[in-house]
Amino acid sequence: MLEAGDRAPSFALPSDSGKDVALQDFAGKTLVVYFYPKDNTPGCTREAQAFTKLLGAFRKVGADVVGISKDSVASHCNFRDKLGLKVPLLSDPELTTHKAYGAWGEKTMYGKKVTGVIRSTFIVGPDGRLQRVYRSVKVDGHAEAVLAEVSGGAKTKPKSKPAAKARPAKKAAAKRRGSGGRR
Length: 183
Description:
It is a single chain. By secondary structure, the protein is of the alpha/beta class. The protein has helices spanning about 40-55, 55-60, 75-85, 95-100, 140-150, 170-175; strands at about 10-15, 20, 30-35, 65-70, 90, 105-110, 110-115, 120-125, 130-135. It has a single domain, classed as 3-Layer(aba) Sandwich (Glutaredoxin), CATH 3.40.30.10. Helices cover about 30% and strands about 25% of the residues. Residues about 155-175 and about 180-183 have low confidence and may be disordered.
């Protein structure tokens, strides 16, 4: 099982652009590789749309994004055109890359053990090593979390000063009047 710090497995796969896309094409850059089960399904559609919506923000922080499934290039082209997707979609029908990344295996679906695509995302650093591994991804909010990670860490609320201890209303009002709490 791959972990952060491991060298990312190399790949060269056909894409919806009609050209092969390889890991080495992104040498010296950050690359987000997300594996998804199937084109034109509800979860996969939301995930692809989320990564497409944020693609400009990813590129602004020096990261690229690719999606990989076992679907054919023709299926990817249909999926891309139907939804106006901008993220390159790579085809891995032999599951070689899925297996190398651990994105294929046994999972539980509707209470049953099945073998299939394990929705996973990998952030590959400029040095070709995995910076972060997300397994069994929940779609909603995931693209935003990955963007926060490649932007320098999870988004946090600004730190604020601790709230002052609340004073009982009578004492607070009296103090404002300058009577020290007595009348």
